Each structure stands twice: as C-alpha cells, then as structure tokens.
Amino acid sequence: MDAVKTVDLTKKYKDLTAVNALNLTVRQGELLSLLGVNGAGKTTTIKMLTGLTRPTSGDAFLNGKSILTESGAVKVMIAVSPQETAVAPNLTVRENLELMAGVHGFPKSEAKDRAAALSDCFSLGEIADTRAGKLSGGWQRRLSIAMALISDPQILFLDEPTLGLDVLARSDLWDMIRNLKGKMTVILTTHYMEEAEALSDRVAIMKSGRLLLTGTPEEIRSRAGTDKFDEAFVRIVKEGQP
Amino acid sequence: MKGLAFSKRNDLEVLRDPLNLFFGVGFPIILLLLLTAIQANIPVAMFEIEHLAPGITVFGLSFMTLFSATLIAKDRGSSFLQRLYTTPLTAGDFILGYLLPILPICIAQSVICYGAAVILGLKVTVHMVSSVLFTLPAALLFVSLGLLCGSIFTDKQVGGICGALLTNLTAWLSGVWFDLGLVGGAFQKIADLLPFVHAVEMERAVLRGDYAGVFPHIWWVSGYAAAVTAIAVFAFLRQMERQ
Fold this sequence. Notes:
The complex is a heterodimer of chains A (about 240) and B (about 240). Chain A is an alpha/beta fold and about 240 residues long. In chain A, about 40% of the residues lie in helices and about 25% in strands. Chain A has helices spanning about 40-50, 70-75, 95-105, 110-120, 135-150, 165-180, 195-200, 215-225, 230-240, and strands at about 5-15, 15-20, 25, 30-35, 55-60, 65, 80, 155-160, 185-190, 200-205, 210-215. In chain A, helix 3 (about 95-105) crosses helix 4 (about 110-120), helix 3 runs parallel beside helix 5 and helix 8 packs across helix 9. The radius of gyration of chain A is 18 Å and the shape is globular. Chain B is globular, with a radius of gyration of 18 Å. The interface between A and B is medium-sized, with 34 and 24 residues.
C-alpha cells in the first residue's frame, strides 16, 4: 500500500486554482521532496493532506484512509513540523514535548518517557528546562521536529525545515532527517535544491498547481540533460507546461 | 486527556507572562491601595472599601479578556495553532481549552482582590465567599470576549482593543469610579444596557448579603455571557475553518 496517494486532488480559491487534479503517490518509508517556485501549490497540497484545508474536489488516501471521510484516523497517523517556529514560547523544552504527547492522548507517565527519549535523541537534554522562546532559531527548529516525532507518526510532513538556519544548524538537521529515512514516510518541502538532492529518495516538481514530474534526483538531472540538480530544476520548471 | 494537556499549556502560558501577573494581580491591588488612600484623606462614599472592592474585582476581570485574546491571537499568528489543528484535538477541545483555564485564574484574582480589601479594612463575612463565586458569570463574559477578540483580531490589534478600549469601557461604564446617576442621560442609559455596571451592582449586593439585590443584574450579566460565548464559539470555528 502507498503511504500517500492523491486522486485528482484539487483546490480552488475563487478564480485561482492552487492545486489542479494532482495525482501523486508516495511509497511507505520514502522521503519525498515537494519542489516548486512560490505559488506552485506545495503548501496547499500539504494543507490538504494534513486536514488543514478541505479539497474542492478529488481525494487523498494516507495509508488507505481518506482525508475527506476518515480525517480523525488520518490525524492520528500524521505529524507536521511547520515552516515557522511552532513551539509554545513560555513552556520549557520538556513541557513542549509533553504537551504534544498529551494532545495525542498519551497518559502522563508515557508522555514523560517519550519526552525524555526524544530529548536524548535530539540532544535536547541539557536545555530541557529552558523555555522554548529563549532558544535560538536552530534549537527551536530542532525542538519543533522533535515535537512532531513524539507521537511516532507514520507520515511526517516537514515544511521548509531548515529555512533561515545557518550552515551548521542546517547540517545537524540534515543528519536528523537522514536518520528518519526508512523509519517513517517523510514529505518535505524546500526551496533549497541541495537539500532536496541530498535528502530525497524521490522528488516531485510542481508548477502552477500541477505536478510536472516525479523521479529520483538522478532521473531529474538526466531528464533535464545536466549534472547540476538546481539547473535541472530550473530547466524543468521553465519548460514545463502547467 | 487530550484537551487537558492543551488547557494546562494555556494556563502556563498566561501565568508565566510577567505582564499578565502585573496587570492581573498587581494593578487592581494598586488601585485599591490608591483609592483607599484617597478615601482616607477625602472621604467619598464611592471609595468606601465595601463599595470599592466589588467594583475593582469586576474591573480586574476585564484584563482577562486581554490575556485570553492575546494568547489566542498569538497562537493564530504563529504556526503553533496550525500545528495543533493537525493533531487529534477536536474543535471542542480547543474552545474549552481556551475558555476553562482562565476561569480559575479569574477566581484567584477575585480572592486576591478581596484579600487585599480585608487588609485595607473590609470586614470578613461569609458573603465574601459568595461574592467570589458570583464573579463567575462576569468572568465567563470577559473570557469569552477574549476568545471572540482573539479569533478575529491580530495580537497587535488585541492590545489596542482589549488592552485600551475594553478596559476603559469597563472602567467608565461600570460605576466603579463615579456614580453613573451623576452623569445621567444617554450615558447612563448606555451603561445600563451594557453588562459592566450590572456585574458591579451584583457583586456589591452579594457582598452586603442582599441576595435579592442580585436581580435583575444577574440576568443581564448571564445573558451577555451566554450571547458572547455563543458568538465567540462561532467566530473561533469560522477562523478554524479558514486556517
């Protein structure tokens, strides 16, 4: 079974078609990067898949569950790390982790155990009692991803996970994301081509709400006839007919 | 369980903000001290402690609108609320999670206000306990106003609307600082049509043990509280759909 399968997924806002009959599949355990210039429809796609926006038509199935008719079951299996910092600023690192475990329905003791385990895993132990609002951007992003993982999601959505981070923080996060590969299905959006190339099993390129193509980074380069991934992306988007 | 985790978070966010503590607890106590000092030098019936304490208690509750609205507007402005919308929390969990944790804070604030008033000379009676309990309809009104404003406005707008406008409206139209009858006319009519003066009059009646005197004020306050809560729930659900 595919982890994600969209069937003619469409979202219209008055005269604008943000996502147009999208048919995309993501395999279980795969890391797929969703690429596209601004307005391509990446964020709207993620919003529909995570239940934040209702599609105008079409449907999507996450591990076989419809986002339209089984949204409750979908919400249990997914987690999202949004683009902007999405932490509770006056709560400590530990409390943020326990909060996310709590809203997923884990009992207090299990929430504490999970928070402790993830703190170790993400090297958050030393700052466990620091308020999240006082952390640097890199540490907040690290915490944000840890918060997404506390429920052991089957499908993880990472929206621009390294946006605005310095090189070292980005490198650290890349390592963390690599460690997730194979353990869960990851859908990542990014504007950094090198990030998509380094992390992805497959890449999907969108333009004006439509899917232009999907393939491995090698396939994308080969299709565009260049060795450089960013050049390949530009060629495909420029030549691609929406 | 899920809703409880969210409620606890909201409680901590409000209580850990030093500005909230100042305006929620410190400011009403400062007003009590100041007006009692004025009363000691220039006796005014309006500022006698048994008259003043219920008014300041209700006025203090108006800051709860600011706290609640700021929390919700900030959550909406950041991606935090969007993140929570993708979890198994239901719409009911969100609404109760924003409303309920502030109510105990309102009760605690009222206890502190009456406690400070006792130190300043208010006689301890059993009616004081009732007075604290009778703040609940007004507390619900102010907290629901917070849910409403937080669902509609940005955190900056909330600062102006709830921090300046609402607190001033409450102060001017509640009869805490001056006798509305002295102004009379349209001013008094408008004040009588709003819940603030009724909340204060209800508190004053309970504190002096005149339980018949809570009528008709309790109907005004409860009616407004119910109506504002219903509108706030609608506004919150609407913005939730838009997110």
